[in-house]
Amino acid sequence: MDIPDRVTAYIEKHHLFPGSGEIIVAVSGGADSLCLLHLLNRLCGPGKRYPQLRLHAAHLNHMLRGAASEQDAETVAKIAADWGIPCTVGTVDVPALAREEHRSLEDAARVARYRFLRQVAQGQPIAVAHHADDQVETLLLHWIRGSGLAGLVGMLPKQQDIIRPLLAESHAESITYCRQHAIVPLEDLSNTDPRFLRNRIRHELLPLLESLNPGIQETLLRNADSVRVDVEWIETQVDACWLTIVLAQQENSIKLDARTFLALPLSLYRHLLRRVTARLYDGQSPLEARHYRLLEQLLAHKNDGQERRLDFPRGLRVIYDFNHVTFKRLNIHTAIHPMGGKSDTREAALLSVPGCVEVVGTSWQIAAEMVPEDVMQQVRQALQREDWPQVWRLLPSTRHTVYADADKVGPSVWVRTRLPGDRMRPLGMIHEKKVQDILVDKHIARHERDFIPLVFSPSHCIWLAGVCLDDRVKISRETQRIVRFLMKQV
Q1: Of 108, 225, 420, 488, which is most buried, counting CB atoms within 10 Å of its CB?
Q2: Which of 127-136, 238-247, 300-309 has the lowest mean pLDDT?
Q3: Alpha carbons within 13 A on the beta-carbon side of 401
């Protein structure tokens, strides 16, 4: 069976297409998306297998590669026109979005893409060109991030309004199809950019795993299928208890009955938490494994009449008043970031990298400066030799000046003073530690502790200013860009 027949069988097996209407096809211009568009154009329309379905191509210019991105958009629009398919081209300044919403570049690109596609679709199905190789990378990405059982299922053929007709095919098969039909794909150099974790998985981790087990891709896909069966059963149990636990749902908040919720078995409890938070965040929960533990600590408090709350990344606030547990999605610019404690309302300032901000409530400024390229060339050479004395001669640090891997830090950070529950992983440690305990261990005077700036990435504290750097942003042999953080008196 050739690829058109296999894809048709896959579409019908998983009921991916509606009986009539329009399907939006996400087209980047690469081999996979052009293969998908060409295949679906052979299947949809008058006189074809699905005569009541129309196609509409959609391409987003992420503004990541300047004129090359604009040229790609023009090329995709022309290809769609040549094939008789209407096309909508959008433009989003993804680097600006990453700074504005305090996301990684990779996450901002994904969010921008799906927002654009849903604006075009207006409720119609959206076909994307994810394939089996993408699935393997996604499974490894989820495993690295500790996504739990649900993450080990990977992508599904159909998730809400997203359909994936090529999910059982390989990237190599897309390339072969394009060659057979004289389709010339665009080359996106961002697919090799090591700043993106997915690219490092593709080009570094997967080859290593394949050297240990040549069949690792098939093994991962087989495991995902086994896990999917278990997760589907768990989700039916969540469905069964949803109406008795969820008291109110609004666009930016969901309220639960605390007593019924807390009586759930731990597995259902966590899966329901994932579903609640995913509904507030366009299908992708912002919670990680460590956040579940913090929530469990919050909800374990005995009733003393005081409302308790925690603030998590991306503006998620959880409020517990012992009768209800309420999840709210706050405006990202006004949310405490990251995890706050109790009812504290301390402000966080957004610091673009490079840039400078004043730390609210203190006499300090925090500045972020990129190390110049001429210095970086020398640093990279010293790192490759593992000549650390030379590295530190080139990067002189003081109590108020530290250096971090810029790609691990991201395009922007948050700066504020400490809140109850703040944690970080000091340089050289493998576990996180309470900031309060670090300050005590370092013999920082009690009256100074509330005025020390803390710098946060989207997921964790990266610098307790004047005290210690977080191990997860340290400079390593793989470091390509370095940011210098400075603590200055106003």
Answers
A1: 108
A2: 300-309
A3: 10
Return the CA Rg of the chain. 25
Tokens of 91: 């433009």
Q: How many CB atoms lie within 10 A of CB 106?
A: 18
| Same-domain pairing of 292 and 213 | no
Helix, strand, coil shares of the chain, percent, nearest 5, are 45, 20, 35
Question: Residue 385 and residue 379: Cα distance in Å, rounded?
Answer: 10
Domain boundary among 270, 295, 329: 329
Range of the domain at 145: 3-219
* Distance (Å, whole) CA 179 – CA 342: 60
Report d(CA 276, CA 365) in Å as an integer.
38
| d(C-alpha 69, C-alpha 72), whole Å | 5
For 410-430, how does the pLDDT look when each residue is reduced to its tens digit (9 = 90+)? Answer: 888 889 998 888 899 999 898
Q: Are residues 210 and 140 in the same domain?
A: yes
Mean per-residue pLDDT over the chain, rounded: 87
Q: Cis omega (within 30 of 0) on the bond before 338? A: yes
Residue 123: half-sphere exposure toward Cβ, Cα within 13 Å: 1
